[in-house]
Design goal:
185 residues, mainly beta, four-stranded antiparallel β-sheet, 1 helix, elongated
Length: 185
């Protein structure tokens, strides 16, 4: 029977079990789950970067399949979806359903951002568009990569994060995975 891959987690910053009541609420968390093929050879890692600096619930960015072949991958901020409605009758006139839709689209979630577009067939709308902008609550920038040697695959980071006055930088290898799953027979 082969080893079972498990998620590894790494914390940075002044990590606390009980978040602070003011920003920075907490540090960042990077977790990775290695993915292997049927022969037990490492293929990729699903990496989640969660920033708790400006949001106590965390803002996450998921890289579903990071591979060593990708090299250094820039860490983009997750998108926060916004809605803009232009109305020919009055810029202040928005239907109740549009208010509800707009309210839901601005709520922050930890894993998935919602996209809301009002009904373009409505007679009051000349133009309705949804645009995505990077979330300003996600403070992590830099790159992440996987580097291999004969027996391990290492997750390497070069990142900056945090509020301007408390900004931190992390460089180096933060976790490793077996290149080939070992048999436990």
């Amino acid at each position: 029977m082969a080893d079972t891959p498990t998620t590894q987690t790494w914390h940075s910053g002044e990590w606390r079990a009980q978040a602070s009541s003011t920003p920075p609420y907490n540090g960042i968390e990077i977790s990775a789950l290695p993915q292997y093929d049927d022969n037990g050879t490492f293929v990729s890692a699903a990496v989640t970067i969660t920033d708790y600096t400006k949001n106590p619930k965390g803002i996450s960015n998921v890289i579903p399949a990071l591979t060593a072949m990708q090299g250094k991958l820039d860490i983009p901020a997750p998108q926060s979806d916004t809605i803009s409605t232009v109305n020919s009758e009055s810029p202040d006139t928005v239907t109740t359903s549009q208010k509800d839709t707009a309210a839901t689209s601005t709520e922050t979630t930890t894993q998935v951002s919602t996209s809301a577009i009002a009904d373009p067939t409505s007679p009051n709308n000349d133009l309705t568009s949804a645009s995505s902008e990077p979330s300003s609550d996600f403070t992590v920038s830099g790159w992440i990569s996987l580097e291999t040697n004969f027996s391990y695959v290492h997750l390497r980071v070069n990142i900056k994060y945090g509020l301007d006055r408390f900004q931190r930088e992390e460089l180096g290898y933060i976790m490793g995975f077996n290149s080939i799953l070992e048999n436990t027979n």
